[in-house]
Amino acid sequence: MSAVITVAPTGPIATTADNPNLPTQPHEIADAVFEAYQAGATVAHLHLRDEEQRPTANLDVAKRTMDLIQQRCPILIQLSTGVGLSVSFEDREKMVELKPRMATLNPCSMSFGMGEFLNPPKGVRRLAARMRELNVKPELEIYDTGHLDACMKLYDEGLLPDPLQFSIVLGVQGGAAATPDNLLLMVRRLPPGAIWQVIAVGRNNLQLTAIALALGGNARAGLEDTLTLRKGVAATNIELVKRAVQLAKDLEVPISTVEEAEKRLQLPKQL
Ligand code: KMH
Ligand code: ZN
Asked: Which terminal residue of the chain, N or C, has fewer Cβ atoms less than 10 Å from its own Cβ?
């Protein structure tokens, strides 16, 4: 089975003050995604920033970024509907109106570091239903075992398409810690046929990405999840993507092409 490599070049929190290599403007994000595609990434997970680097759900900024990427390569675009803690759920859910091939769906509200990440049950159902209507494949972000249970409830309600695709997010303060034990616990609880990757936030990123690849998971790499290559060394997106690709090669796990990823994730064609 081949592994899908996702690049996550920019997250919702860090700025260029934390790592000067962080892309924040549409052309910078598009450049980082194109380089990642050339190195083997087949999915681009996107957060956008305004001119002051604040997280934004501005559809013009998102559309401009998507266009710049699509002019250069066929990487599969996954918009984050997590966007950023300062943006309302109602603004965040509008991201799917741009009809990316995929978008994230965060099933539960939670503490997120010192902030609050609000995903109210009614809003989550409305967003899941809209994604179904628009043929946008959800990637389910689960930060603890209860989030998986919440996703299975959505599935039972007919709101999620097969195969279920999960990100097991470990290392956020407010969710499960980034440990091998927690990863195994979550993987064991996934339903049969689920597709998954680990998002290991912080310094255990490399270790958990390696374990996940060895267990048959996909991999995600980029400055959204870790700002350093190793202790004290600021990373670039391309270094992190190349490291994930090399890990897969060392483990003799083939890397998915865009066509293989589309097939494996059963991405619906968009009209
Ligand atoms: N930033 C990660 C902790 C999303 O964008 O919807 C989780 C994430 C979720 O990537
Ligand atoms: Zn994200």
From this structure: C
Atom of ligand 1 nearest to the CA of 11: 1
pLDDT at 230 (0 to 100): 92
DSSP state of 98: G
Give the atom of ligand 1 at the shortest distance from the alpha carbon of 139. Answer: 6
pLDDT of residue 270 exceeding 80: no
pLDDT at 271 (0 to 100): 63
Distance 47 CA to ligand 2 centre (A): 6
Q: What is the DSSP code (8-state) at residue 255? A: B
The conformation of residue 94, written as its DSSP 8-state character, comes to G
Cβ–ligand 1 distance for 199 under 6 Å, the answer yes
Q: Which of 253, 242, 175 is nearest to 212 (CA)?
A: 253
The amino acid sitting at 138 is P
Domains of the chain: 5-264 (3.20.20.70)
How is 21-80 classified by DSSP, letter by letter? T---SHHHHHHHHHHHHHHT--EEEE-EE-TTS-EE--HHHHHHHHHHHHHH--PEEEE-
What is the three-class DSSP state of 229? strand
Regarding the beta carbon of 139 and ligand 1, being less than 6 Å apart is answered: no
C-alpha of residue 141 to centroid of ligand 2, in Å: 9
Q: Which of 69, 76, 95, 97 is nearest to 84 (CA)?
A: 95
Distance 261 CA to ligand 1 centre (A): 20
User: Amino acid identity of 66?
Assistant: M
Of 43, 62, 47, 53, nearest to 106 (Cα)?
47
Rounded to 5 degrees, φ, ψ at 217 are -85, 170
Segment 228-267, tens digit of pLDDT: 999 999 999 999 999 999 999 999 999 999 999 999 999 9
